[in-house]
Amino acid sequence: MKALALLPFVVLFAGCAAQTEEPIGDDESDVTATNYVEIGDFWKKPEDQDRWFAVKSKIVSEFDNVCGDTFCGGDYSNLTSLGFSCGVSDKRGSIRDCVWTFTGSAEFVNPTTSTLRTSVPSYQCHVKPKATAAQLATLLAAPGPGRAIDRQLPGTTTSLYDVLFDCFQHPIGASPLNPTFVDKPTYVEALDSFTDGAGQDQWLAARSALKAGFDDVCGDTFCEGDYTNIQALRFVCSVTRSTGNLKSCAWLFGGSYADVAPKTGAVTVNAKSWRCNVPVRGTASQLSSVLTAPGEVAPIRRPLPGGTATAYDALLNCL
H or E element: which one contains 226? Predict the structure, then answer.
């Protein structure tokens, strides 16, 4: 793939234009005096910070657009970005290491015991472009041609897209599900318990409503600690296939934060997963009806069937 010519940095990141004069990949002449920081901390001007945030949003959006037809066709069909981070020298912004971190979930209901098994691994996809922070930002921010994730990275023969193909073959922290199958399962995952499309659509809408509710509250609650980018994955339940009665429900989450070694620039990812058990009784249809009904109270804060507890209450004891 031919590399896209880098645009003059003054166009997109004018506040740091003087920092692009060094050759790609060069560090400060006095290596012992060089310190490395996370790339987000390198940008000093608010406008440059905003542009870098826009770059990260752009590559995540491009990933989401292609995932369903590519990376999300395997066991982990809901791969979700946890952030893109780089270690750069604090004076000139020379890149030493970058990592794009992802999480995803897989679930299996034992058809004879109703046991709900889950796996929430992380993927830590490293790349080391020979570039400054400004040059990488300019490359990824440029409007075209093609997607930013397909552009050859400076000093490498690959793109971000290429790196992900190998990375997704190596999940970290995956739990074996050991699925077993029978012709007539007694227990299934809730989505599979509905015999009509309308019921399945309502269940999927209930899932989406819970996720939207979590995203709304996370910044002021659960995402204020070390893991500031916790992502809600699937809400899953095991149910009795013949009746739709709920046996158990769990809400899965993934999160991470990155540390940059100040003397080497290497990026270390600290990833974590959560399985939050949500106590609820009744049927899958009753639960989805509660969560999708119109009303001023957010679905995440509505009492669940069979009690007074909410999904939010369950997270307080888990995250």
Answer: none
Could you write out the DSSP letters of every residue in 250-298? EEEEEEEEEEE-TTT--EEEEEEEEEEE----SBHHHHHHHHHS-SSS-
Closest by alpha carbon to 253, among 225, 292, 291? 225
Would you tell me how many other CB atoms lie within 10 Å of the CB of residue 155? Answer: 13
Residue count (the chain): 319
Q: Report the C-alpha gap between 237 and 173 in whole angstroms.
A: 22
Say how many C-beta atoms besides its own lie within 10 A of residue 179's C-beta.
12
pLDDT digit string, tens, across residues 127-178: 999 999 999 999 999 998 899 999 999 999 999 999 999 999 999 999 999 9
pLDDT at 15: 42
Please give the backbone phi and psi of residue 24, each rounded to the nearest 5 degrees, phi first. -55, 130
Question: Tokens 């790349």, residue?
Answer: 127
Distance (Å, rounded) from C-alpha 47 to C-alpha 51? 6
Q: Is the alpha carbon torsion for 57, 58, 64, 67 positive or negative?
A: negative
> What is the Cα–Cα distance from 29 to 91, expressed in whole angstroms?
11
Instruction: Give the pair of three-digit tokens for residue 189.
Output: 């995952």
CA-closest candidate to residue 163, choices 125, 196, 135: 125
Confidence of residue 31 (pLDDT cuts 50, 70, 90): low
Which residue, among 207, 214, 185, 188, has the nearest Cα to 298 in the 3D structure? Answer: 214
Please check whether residue 172 is in contact with residue 121, taking contact to mean a CB–CB distance below 8 angstroms: yes
For 183, list phi and psi in degrees, rounded to 5. Answer: -65, -40
Domain boundaries, the chain: 9-316
What one-character DSSP code corresponds to residue 5? P
**Helix residue ranges per DSSP H, the chain:** 9-12, 39-42, 46-67, 133-141, 160-167, 190-193, 197-218, 284-292, 311-316
- The overall pTM is greater than 0.85: yes
Q: How far apart are CA 152 and CA 60, in angstroms?
A: 17
Per-residue pLDDT at 119 exceeds 80: yes
What are the backbone dihedrals phi and psi of residue 227, each rounded to the nearest 5 degrees, phi first? -95, 90
